[in-house]
Structures are given as C-alpha cells and as structure tokens.
Amino acid sequence: MQLEKTFRAACESGLRRGILTAACAAAASAASALEIADVTARQRWPWNNLVDVTFQLSGAESSETFYRIDVSASYPGMAGDAVAAKSLVSEPLVKGNGSHTVVWDMGADLPCLVASNLTVSVSAAPLAPTDPVYMIVDLSDGASATSYPVRYSLTGPDLSDDTCRTSEMWFRLCPAGTFTMGAASSDYATVSSWCLPAHSVTLTKPFWLGVFEVTQEQYYRIRGSWPSHYSNETYRATRPVEKVGYDNDIRRSSEWYGNTLTGEGRFMARLRNCTGLAFDLPTEAQWEYACRAGTTGLYYDDAISSSTIAQYARVNKAVNQDGASGDTGGTAKVGSFAPNPWGFYDMYGNVAEICGDGNPYASCTTACQDDFANYAGTYINPRGPVQYSTPTYMSAGVVRGGSISDNGNGHVTSVGREQMSPNGTGSIKKSFGFRVCLTAE
User: Fold this and answer.
1) Residue 150 confidence (pLDDT)
2) Rounded to an integer, what distance in angstroms lies between the CA atom of residue 191 and that of residue 182?
3) Which of 92, 235, 321, 392 is the S-S candidate for 69 at Cβ 3.0 to 4.6 Å?
C-alpha cells in the first residue's frame, strides 16, 4: 500500500510541475506520409493510474483508414528500451486524420514507479489486410433514443455474452475486391438456373456487414415492436427477426436503393438517423462476396455437403420449440454454429436474408437468369444487378442463404437465390430475415 501511495505522489508532483512529457514517433511503414504531432499525456484527476494520451494524426490514406496505435514510455536512468504500454484501457485503434485519444493504465505496466520525468511516445501503423476490424452500434437506449453511439474494435464479439446479440449490433469490415459470383454450369444439378451463369464482379468499395442476422431484440430496440412468428419470450431475444417486409418494415421500396430514406419509422431510416451512417441492406453481390469469404465452391467449408447442410437450416428444434401456430420447429439463436472464414454467422440457414437490390421481373424464369447475368463487370460502388436507365422501385426481391424451410436444398449454398415480394406473403414470410450493411465512403 505504501508503494502505491509513493507512485501516485510522484506522478502527482510531476504533473503539477508540468514535467510529465510526451514525444511522438510515426511508425516506419508503407504510409511514409503518416505523421503524429502534439502528443500530450495527462494523468486523470483525482490521481490514479490512468493516463489520457492525446495526439494529432495526419497523412492518413483516407477518412476510412484504420491505424494500430502503440504507446511506450521512458525516463532518465531507465535501463534498456522504453517500456511498451501494453495495458491500454481503450482500443489501440484510430480511424482517419484528426485528434485521437487512447487511455493507458500506467500503473499496470510500471508498478511502483518513482520518476520525475516520464516521456510518452506514440507510433501508428496501418492495419494489415488480414486484420479483422469491427464496428459496434450501441442500442442500449432503445427505440426512444435519438442517437446510437458507435465504436470500433480489433476484437470480435464475446459469444458467451448475449449483449452482442441484443443491446449491441456488431459489424465486420470486408475489403474491396473481385470475385466470381454465381454457380458454375457443373453445379446445375445442385442449384437452380437462377444462379447461372458464373461471372466476375468487382466491389470497388469496402463495406461493413452485420456479423449476425438482425435479432428480435435488436429490432425491438430500434423499432419498438416484436413482429416475429417465433415469439416465445424465453427464446425470442436472440433469435433472428422474421415476418418483416421490405417495404412496410425495413425500407421504402419506392425509394431508389442507396438513396436517402424518408420512411422515418422504418428500421433502416431509424438506424440511419440515430447513427448518422448510411446503413442499408446488402446488395446480392456484397452478400455473396462476404458469404464466400474467399472460397470458390458451392459452400465456404469443404466439410459441408448437401447431406450435412440441413443442420444449418433446421436446427435445435427441441430448444427452440414454441408451438407457435402449431409449428414445432423454430429458428436458432444467432451464432449457434461456427462462422464462415471471415467470421460471419448463419450465412446458411436460419432465415433467408433479404437483399436490397431487387429484380424487376414478373416471373423467376429466363428473365431472372438474364438479370443475374447483368451483374457482370465492375459495380457502381456497388449497385446491381441491373443498371436501370431510370430509377425504379422493387417490384420483386431476392433472399439469399436459405432458411429453416429449405431443409438443406440448393438454396442453402453460397449461390442460392429465392424470389420474394416486397412484403412477403403467407407462411413463407416467417422464413425471411435480414442483416445490415454499410458501404464505406
């Protein structure tokens, strides 16, 4: 206890005399223009072990570029190299240019330190392409909120805590890239002609995609209602929301996809208004790109086959049974099964996921296949599948990934496609849900 008091007294004295100093060091990296300036380190009052390290970052590649931050400390007479500030209370992650702050638990890394001149250094480096980055939207204030705070993390959701499925919404960043969309002709025996032909698609911008399908409680915290068929209160919070329509519940079908939304009470409009971010449904290409996660076959896991895929679709009936309308099946808690290689859960089964770019076809036969073929080429950041000459609305839509109603057929693949009307009809509507997407600027 005496040592702790000595540590605090020394830091307090140093701060009051203005001798807790700071230095800056830009990381040696490909981002040669990256600069760090105006580093300040201030111990918190009342005096404790936490230090706010604030700095200015310039030379970022774009406002959407993330950088990993490292903090170190040294003082006169210190043996060896500077001590790395391993105990950062905040994420060692910043985005774009401007003023940033990270919080260092100095007492954890330098216990019992008595120093009159402590120098704090900051360095930054771009994340590697393979580093996962997550965005978290805080929904804890519910449907009456006027804003939902947003934060970022290098660590994925803790599946042992349902917060990530209920009062928070988690997204993972997908890089821009080119991939082959659709099924090869050799796969025609497994999938329908709606998934042909295979063609190259380039997504020109990164995008954030929901790690999970939107759950019933997340929907409630945004819209204030519980619309789903599988409504047993014991299980519903972490199940995917379903029995929702594109037009009535999610976004106005009369508004051109990707534009400003005016349907204030709808899910996407409220999420946009409370975050200031242009969230929307994923396009089919974004959905398939994320589902494939760099793979090229019908399934993102070689161990999955048409004989085993049913477990992803019709899962855990005994636990989820609620007897709604005599149905003894049910959807699963999101994240019940292993994710795909990029960390997205339930891309196969549970609920079929509504995409934002609809097809204006009257029947899903040759016209559907022709429209799908029009995906070929470079996306317009991104929009598809058809580049209409004039804005139009969704007269018919597409859902992806299969559902509990498919029982392991060709829909439950990386290429499976099914038709839907803007608001769904009949019992099939309980098989349709969605996840949220945000295209980076």
Assistant:
1) 96
2) 10
3) 92
Tell me the whole-structure pTM to 2 decimals: 0.83
pLDDT (tens digit, 9 = 90+) per residue, 248-307? Answer: 788 876 665 556 666 567 899 999 999 999 999 898 889 999 999 999 888 888 766 555
Helix (H, G, I), strand (E, B) or coil at 156: coil
Amino acid 256 reads: W
The letter for the amino acid at 88 is: L
Give the tens place of pLDDT for each residue, 299-350. 888 766 555 554 554 433 333 334 343 344 578 889 988 889 999 999 988 8
Residues in CB range of 413: below 8 A, 6 or more apart: 183, 190, 191, 298, 299, 309, 348, 402
- Beta partners for 406? none
Is the per-residue pLDDT at 403 higher than 50? yes
Q: Looking at this protein, which amino acid is placed at residue 219?
A: Y
Instruction: Spell out the residues 6+ positions from residue 323 whose beta carbon is closer than 8 angstroms to its own.
Output: none
Residue 221, CA distances (Å) to 161, 212, 245, 250 in order? 18, 16, 18, 14
Question: How far is Cα 239 from Cα 215, in angstroms, rounded to an integer?
Answer: 5
The two structure tokens encoding residue 277: 């971010």
Burial of 315 (0-12, 13-18, 19+ CB in 10 A): buried
Judge if the upstream peptide bond of residue 385 is cis by omega within 30 degrees of 0. Answer: yes
Query: Which tokens go with 68?
Result: 């990993």
Superfamily per CATH, domain 134-439: paralog of FGE (formylglycine-generating enzyme) (3.90.1580.10)
Question: Which of 3, 4, 49, 20 lies closest to 115, judged by CA?
Answer: 20
CA 249, distance to chain mean position in Å, is 21
Kindly state the tokens that stand for 412: 């439950």
DSSP β-bridge partners for residue 309:
none
Based on the number of CB atoms within 10 Å of its own CB, is 28 exposed (0-12), middle (13-18) or buried (19 or more)? exposed
Looking at residues 410-439, what average pLDDT do you find? 78
As a whole number of angstroms, the distance between CA 295 and CA 301 comes to: 8
CA distances from 91 to 76, 160, 367, 427 (A): 29, 20, 49, 45
Token pair in block for residue 434: 């969605």
End-to-end CA distance of the chain: 52
